[in-house]
């Protein structure tokens, strides 16, 4: 009976050795994704504020400068 419990604990210990780093890496990847999303969102907000500060003619001029065919 004790050998069965010992072998079960051994198997669980070995599985935990494989699964714990996986879950730690998964949390780190989520944190990296959240940080990247936050940076992109802040950049998007900065661009929108810059555009909102411009006059309509400035916006048109910048778009035509960038997207015109030469």
Structural notes for this entry:
This protein is mainly α and 70 residues long. It has one domain (2-67). Helix content is 91%, strand content 0%. The protein has two helices and no strands. The model has no long low-confidence stretch (mean pLDDT 85).
What's this, in brief?
It is built from two helices and no strands. With 70 residues, the chain is mainly α. The model has no long low-confidence stretch (mean pLDDT 85).
The radius of gyration over CA amounts to: 27 Å
Helix content bin: over 70%
Q: What is the overall silhouette?
A: rod-shaped
Count of extended strands: 0
Tally the helices: what do you get? Answer: 2
Short descriptors:
rod-shaped, single chain, 2 helices, mainly alpha, 70 residues
Please give the structural blueprint.
Blueprint: H1 2-53, H2 56-67
